[in-house]
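Q: What does the assembled structure look like for these inputs?
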Amino acid sequence: MIANIWSAKVCRAVLGAWMLTLLVACTLTLPVTSSAFAESTNHLIEIKGFVYDPVTLNVNAGDSITWVNNDFVSHTATAVLASSQNEVSEVSNLQYWTTEEILPGGKETMLVEQSMILEYFCKYHPSMKASIARN
Amino acid sequence: MKMNLKTASFLGAAILTSCTLSAQSQSPAELNDLQIAHVAYIADNIDIQYAHLALALSENPTVREFAQTMVRDHNGVNAQALALLKKLDAQPQNNFLSESLQADAKGIINNLASLRGAEFDRAYAENELAYHQAVNGLIENTFIPNIDNAEVKALFIAGLEIFKAHEAAAKLMVSNVR
Ligand SMILES: [Cu+2]
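A:
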C-alpha cells in the first residue's frame, strides 16, 4: 500500500516532467517544422522484380526520393538523356542526375530539384524505366 | 560483314549442337533439382567468362557497361544460389547438360578471343543475345516446370526475371553495335 502511493507520486512527477519537456520541445520545434519541413515529403520507391514501384511519382521541389532495392542484383535510378537533336535543345536546361549503385537490400536517397530530368531508367538494365512528375 | 555472318552461324551451330546432342542422349527435362542447380551455376559462370573477355578486349562503352552488368548480376545470382544450397545442405550435381554447355562455351570463347574491335563487339553482342535466349528458354520451358523444391523454384523464377532483362539489354546492344 505504501509502496503504491509512493510509486503513484513518482509517476506523477515523472509524467509532469515529461509533459514539460514535451511542451518545451513543441514550442522550440514547431515553428521550424512548419516553415521548413512541413511541405517536403520523403517518397519511397520500391524496386522489386526489375520494376520501380510506383512507376510514376508526383513530387515537389524540395522533396526527397528514396529508392529501396529488394532484388538480389544491383540497380540504379539514372536520368534519361534525350537522344534526338530536337529533344536535346528542348531539354538542355534540365539537370542530369543519377543515384550511386543501389545494392541488393540497399537504398539511395536523392533531393528533388526544380530543373531535374523527369524520365529515368536503370543504367544496368535499360529496359527498366520510370518517371517523376512535378506537381 | 563476311566475318560477322561466319561468326553468327558458328554460334548458331554451337547452340544447335547442344540441342541435338541432348535430344539424342538425355533430356534436360529429366534432370533433378541438384542437376538443374549445377547447370544454372555453370551457365552463370560461362556468361561471366564471356563478360571478362569483353572487358579485356572491347573499348565500346555500351559493350563494357553490359559486360560489367553481367559480372555483377551473375555473381549476385550465384551468391544467392550458393546460399540456398547451403541452407538446404545440398551439393549441385554435374550432368550431361552442364558438360555440353561448357564444351560449347570453350569453342565460343576461342572464337571470340580471335576477334578485335567492331568485329568482336558485334560477335559478343550477338552471342549474348543468342545465349540469353537459349538459356531463358531452357529455364522457362524446361527447368521451372520440373523443379520440385519450392525455394529452388522461387529462385529460378526470380533469376529468369533478371535474365530476361539481360536479354532485352542484349537486344539493345546488338542494334547499338551493328
Ligand atoms: Cu537494374
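The beta strands of chain A are 42-48, 51-53, 56-59, 64-69, 78-79, 107-111, 119-121, 129-134.
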